[in-house]
Design a protein that fits this description.
Elements lengths: L9 E2 L5 E2 L25 E2 L13 H13 L11 H4 L28 H21 L26
Antiparallel strand pairs: 1-2, 1-3
GO biological process, one term: sterol transport
GO molecular function: sterol binding
Length: 161
């Protein structure tokens, strides 16, 4: 969501989401080169520098544009589309009420080669998730926030903890 990335966050004149020029309906498959005089010719950027507060969108702007980002396909014009990587990372079932019920943190570690590497990685993940859970101990709508760790390399490891 950047004013400098004109092709990444655009809107039609009616205020709805406008995709990058190299995606439908702006450019149809098999059309060859995409014409700039098509249906998306009047699209404008989502934000102007003057719209931002401390170099960030307002809460209202963020709430409105987050679903656009999550549904945007990455493209040559805008490689930062969130559909491939982030759409399933958030549970937006109660989003219209301002609530994101679940999300995911992504972390990475060094390659694991020996058994002790796997054990230490699990220990570090437990510590990390515990710290994050503790920092989020706020009662929101009478539900507690808790973070758990998961990895396809630890499918049997958790049963030993």
């Amino acid at each position: 969501m950047s004013p400098e990335a004109f092709g990444c966050c655009r809107k039609f004149t009616n205020g709805s989401y406008c995709p990058p020029d190299d995606q439908p309906p702006c450019c149809l498959p098999g059309q060859g080169s995409c014409a700039l005089d098509g249906v998306c010719r009047d699209c404008t950027t989502c934000f102007l520098h003057s719209d931002w507060h401390n170099n960030r969108p307002s809460t209202e702007q963020f709430i409105e544009k987050l679903p656009w980002f999550l549904n945007a396909l990455p493209s040559a014009d805008c490689s930062k589309g969130g559909h491939g990587a982030y759409t399933s990372s958030l549970d937006l079932n109660d989003y219209e009420n301002g609530v994101i019920r679940a999300s995911e943190f992504r972390t990475y570690h060094t390659p694991l080669n020996k058994q002790i590497d796997f054990v230490n990685a699990m220990r570090a993940a437990r510590e990390f998730s515990s710290r994050i859970s503790d920092s989020l101990k706020i009662d929101i709508f009478r539900t507690q926030c808790s973070i758990y760790f998961s990895s396809n390399t630890w499918i049997f490891g958790r049963q030993h903890w």
